[in-house]
Amino acid sequence: MGNNIDQNITINVEGALDPHATANAIADKQTRVNARLIGQLTQRAY
Fold it and tell me: How much is the pLDDT for 2?
């Protein structure tokens, strides 16, 4: 049986002075979180 990940993220931001920059910063952080999770799962698989 393989691994299964079910991820649902909701991020609400209010009052950002630069919505585009805020969205990019959040996307970058979420990408790092996902990469760290995959790295941890990959290490455990071996």
Answer: 65
Measured distance CA(9)–CA(27) in Å, rounded: 11
Alpha-carbon dihedral sign for residues 17, 21, 24, 28: negative
Residue 11 has pLDDT above 80, yes or no: yes
> What is the Cα–Cα distance from 1 to 35, expressed in whole angstroms?
22
Query: Does residue 44 register a pLDDT over 90?
Result: no
Q: Are 3 and 41 in contact (CB under 8 A)?
A: yes
Between CA 42 and CA 36 the distance in angstroms is: 10
CA-only gyration radius of the chain, Å: 15
